Amino acid sequence: MAQQVDDARRPPLSRDRVLRAAVALADDAGIDSLSMRKLAQELDVVPMALYKHVANKEQLLDGMVDVIAGEIDPPAHDIEWKSAVRQRILSARRVLLRHPWASRVIESRTSPTPAVLDYMNSIVGMFRTGGFSVDLTHHAMHALGSRIWGFSQELFPASPSPDPEMQAAMLHQLAARYPYIAEIAAAVAHDEESVVGSGCDDQFEFEFALELLLDGFERLRQHGWTSTNQSCA
Amino acid sequence: MAQQVDDARRPPLSRDRVLRAAVALADDAGIDSLSMRKLAQELDVVPMALYKHVANKEQLLDGMVDVIAGEIDPPAHDIEWKSAVRQRILSARRVLLRHPWASRVIESRTSPTPAVLDYMNSIVGMFRTGGFSVDLTHHAMHALGSRIWGFSQELFPASPSPDPEMQAAMLHQLAARYPYIAEIAAAVAHDEESVVGSGCDDQFEFEFALELLLDGFERLRQHGWTSTNQSCA
DNA sequence: AGAGTAGGGTGTACGCCGTACACGTGTCAA
DNA sequence: TTGACACGTGTACGGCGTACACCCTACTCT
Fold first, then answer.
1. How far apart (Å, rounded) are the C-alpha atoms in residues B69 and B63?
2. What global pTM score does this model have?
3. Are residues A94 and A134 in the same domain?
4. Are B148 and A155 inside 8 Å of each other by CB?
5. Distance in angstroms, CA of A9 to C1' of C24?
6. For position A5, what pLDDT does the model report?
7. Cβ of A1 near strand C (distance < 7 A)
8. Does A28 lie in the same domain as A8?
9. At which of A97, A125, A155 does a domain end?
């Protein structure tokens, strides 16, 4: 009876509802705030109830990755391999920008889920139908690494820039010990005056590296590269 | 008095001793087993004693990264930029292979420590003295991303391969849903018969991608690439 | 010589976390 | 009617990071 009253307020749990709530919570509050207890609270349920739908927290995270993998645009057909790959990867990137926690979670996964395999399989397929050997495709996939997901490791994760004066002072201090880094920081700071934003243009950086790799792949393919007969130049 | 007896058995704590013990513990037991409590136990000390030497666990991890950054070989001089960069990065890679936990910790750091800045500064310097513009150097650094540290994101982190029969069965099942992935898996499995190891040759994969990027940088430099005048081909 | 002070190890306690386990309770099949 | 099953509940355990109050020692200053 009491449960029925509850049921009126909240639909019954399901694996899907749990996963979607988890994604929403991570989006809103950050991945560090995602605990089984908080998630349960969000769903108006006692923590242990979740364990009827996911085996443990690891599997919850796996499921969350699956959910967002499903948000990536379906693969395009009938276009040349490079555009197809780029398009798919940039779509993945858009998804990951909507879910900033996802990159860290993807990195931490220890074995791929079906949705992840589907995604990777489709990209491998693009190389293969684009005329790449199994060998070269294999190494290209490794070379792409996490870039397949549309993110690259940020070395300095966008420090919040204080007022310009402060910034100039810090730059000066930086220059004493790290002259080369300071040089770049200065150039970036200067660019900012024309472009908006508080750091590097991440999208540009990402696409720059992606094109560099794709062009490299193309060149190797044209030269009939194989791993036993290396001629990178 | 009691403390003096203790002192005979264990030297006094220091930031350095704490950090080294933390690195050793992470090496031996894995980063997941590294807790302030376990570390304190290892040092024969009460957990809170650590907090006189590191502000909190985050700073402990920062310090650990600094320790291993110090293990990277010093930069070489008087050789062309590409060899210098490659050499330094491969040295970093060797360090990281000795400390398998380090890549995950590095990724999780939120602001760079001095030793990290030193390392990055030296690599930036190699590009600059090698004739790269500030602009191109900047983007090259981003393109390298975590590869600067000698690791790349592994998408499938080396699943433990069971007996060959089992493996063949799994491959067959894989082929039904993920034909392209299976194709690669089959090729890798075949290679294994001649080469030892239970998966891809990580070192080869790493160097393949590194050379691809370095060659790409070189080509852009020769063509006088700038970010406002893009001609990647 | 005595008082004061700073540095560094200790003990206790709090509020989080993931989750094992035993227990309802509602639904449906036999 | 009875039993099985699915699923939400309640309690409890052992771990975590760390705040805070406390010593005890060594050293400085008068």
1. 10
2. 0.91
3. yes
4. yes
5. 21
6. 42
7. yes
8. yes
9. A155
Residue B61 lies in a domain: no
d(CA A94, CA B131): 35
Output B224 or B157, whichever has higher pLDDT: B224
Per-residue confidence (pLDDT) for residue A162, from 0 to 100: 58
Determine the Cα–Cα distance for residues B29 and B39; give it in Å rounded to an integer. Answer: 11
A233, part of any domain: no
Q: Which of A220, A215, A214, A79 is nearest to A136 (CA)?
A: A220
A214 CA: distance to closest CA in chain B (Å): 10
- Burial-class residue A51 by CB neighbours within 10 Å (0-12, 13-18, 19+): middle
User: Whose CB is within 7 A of strand D?
Assistant: A 3, 6, 12-13, 45-49, 52-53; B 1-4, 34-38, 47-48, 51, 56-58
Contact B187, A125 (CB under 8 A): no
User: Which has the closest alpha carbon to A214: A87, A30, A60?
Assistant: A87
Computed over every residue of chain A, the mean pLDDT equals: 89
Q: How many domains does chain A have?
A: 3
Across the interface, of B153, B184, B208, the residue whose CB is closest to A146 is B153
Any idea of the CA torsion for A178, A179, A183, A188, to the nearest 10 degrees? 20
Is B128 part of any domain?
yes
**Percent of chain B surpassing pLDDT 90:** 73
Domain housing B217: 69-155+201-222
Q: Are residues B92 and B170 in the same domain?
A: no
User: Are both B119 and B136 inside the same structural domain?
Assistant: yes
A231 domain-assigned = no
